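dumping this here before i forget
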Amino acid sequence: MKIFDKVKFHLGDSVALVTKKMESWEPKKCKTEKDYEKSLYQFLHDQLGDLQITKQYAKGRIRADLMIGDTVIVELKHNLDTTGKYQRLIGQISEYKEWDGRVIILLTGETDMNLRKQLDAFIKKEGLGDGFLLTEETKVTVFQK
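structure:
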């Protein structure tokens, strides 16, 4: 990891750095959410070697697919295509509200456009972000791959 990236991560632009790295991530032969999680973990570990990356992070009621440097949670959702999956994701986001760090929702596979619109509207309504714009005040960022 470059020293500039390390400083950038620790001085507040952590989500921008992680999402920038994820833009170049090319998952191969991934079929399940677990496959995507393993692929992303390995990729981020290679890209952000100096930062602690934890799989299946859990603390209290918070459960996340990945934790990066104790400040960023990555929650993967593969094929967000049913109301049940959407409702479960909303429940997870609600739990993350109490957490001090920031959250990246990573959508992979097929995403129902109506559910994506509902997700963005929920994030905005709850004051957690815009869904599209990324600022340092944004609590939840949605990234689609």
